[in-house]
Design brief:
By secondary structure, this protein is α/β, with parallel strands linked by helices. About 50% of the residues lie in helices and about 10% in strands. It has two domains: about 120 residues, Glutathione S-transferase Yfyf (Class Pi), Chain A, domain 2 (Up-down Bundle), CATH 1.20.1050; about 160 residues, Rossmann fold.
Length: about 290
């Protein structure tokens, strides 16, 4: 069985290592992914803050394309894409008016209910934790990891219906399963600033400082993420944070799929570890 795969814009551009590591992991596990044909940008935050109808329509069109392709389940590894696809699905299910309007705008009717999964749900509920555990070749040997969910994986809870919005544990459980040690810390669902990185850089730097401070206080050696924007803000701007606040953070920020890949015996090169601003090479030698 092939699972629908919606990569979104980031995994084909700024987050290529997320795409690379996910496909490497799926290849190792024998999971077949079928990319949604003719997909378009989900719109992310800019679309729905400009006009709610636009945000729903962009995401709905991807669900419609997947339905036409005969897919039933869609894996959306980008947290923003996952959030928008789930919001669109929720909107058309709960409002006949919105459903009618989306059909008018996209020129089609969705024939089946599309189930959208984020990366954590996929390995927990679809592939299964027992199957993943059986495939582990090189456990992470107690690597101390701050599991960072950000805001888009868990909120709004009534739409996403995934994990606890204030204290989620699904990534923690996954990291523990592959041999890592998920640390206790207070910023696992705090916002990184998202797309404010350009217009409000100072705000994003302060948010990043809080996140790194909390992770460091919890004993973390690295931060694991499932969101391209979170990864970029924390990894790329770490040197700016240090300069502005006179700190000395040197904490790798990696995708959870990269950690899964290491536990499966894949090499750092196969998983795109050479793409990060803050290298994890020395840490992973332990």
């Amino acid at each position: 069985m092939a699972y629908g795969y919606y990569p979104g814009c980031s995994l084909h551009s700024t987050a290529k290592e997320y795409n690379i590591s996910l496909k490497a992991v799926c290849g190792k596990l024998g999971i077949e992914l079928s990319e949604v044909e003719d997909w378009n940008c989900c719109g992310a935050t800019p679309a729905h803050t400009t006009k709610e109808e636009l945000g729903v329509a962009l995401a709905y069109n991807n669900l419609l394309n997947a339905s036409r392709q005969g897919l039933e389940d869609i894996l959306a590894p980008c947290a923003a894409c996952y959030n928008r696809l789930k919001n669109a699905s929720y909107a058309v299910k709960h409002s006949p008016e919105v459903n009618k309007r989306m059909n008018e705008l996209t020129g089609g009717v969705m024939e089946r209910d599309m189930k959208v999964y984020n990366i954590l749900e996929f390995f927990r509920d679809i592939y299964g934790q027992d199957n993943l555990k059986a495939a582990i070749e090189k456990p992470l040997e107690g690597l101390n990891v701050a599991c960072y969910y950000g805001c888009l994986l868990v909120r709004p809870s009534k739409v996403l219906n995934f994990d606890d919005a204030e204290d989620p544990v699904s990534m923690d459980d996954l990291v523990r399963l592959i041999g890592g040690n998920p640390v206790r810390w207070s910023c696992k669902t705090e916002c990184c600033g998202g797309s404010h990185a350009i217009p409000e850089t100072d705000i994003v730097l302060e948010l990043g400082r809080r996140i790194f401070t909390s992770a460091q206080a919890g004993g973390a050696e690295m931060i694991a993420v499932a969101c391209p924007l979170c990864q970029a803000n924390l990894d790329m701007r770490q040197s700016q944070i240090n300069k502005k606040f006179n700190t000395d953070f040197r904490m790798p920020v990696v995708y959870v799929t990269q950690l899964i890949g290491l536990a499966l015996g894949l090499s750092k090169e196969e998983l795109g570890f050479n793409s990060h601003f803050v290298s994890a090479a020395e840490l992973l030698k332990k």
